[in-house]
Amino acid sequence: MSSAKKTYARVTTKTLQEMKANGEKISMLTAYDYTLGGIVDKAGVDVILVGDSASNVMAGHETTLPITLDQMIYHASSVVRAAQRALVVVDLPFGTYQADSKEALRSAIRIMKESGAHAVKLEGGEQVKDSIERILQAGIPVMGHLGLTPQSIYKFGTYSVRAKEEEEAAQLLKDTKMLEEIGCFGIVLEKVPAVLAGDAASSISVPIIGIGAGNQVDGQVLVLHDMLGMNKEFSPRFLRRYLDLDQVLNDAIGQYSADVKSLNFPNDKEQY
Ligand code: KIV
Question: What is the pTM of this model?
Answer without folding.
Answer: 0.96
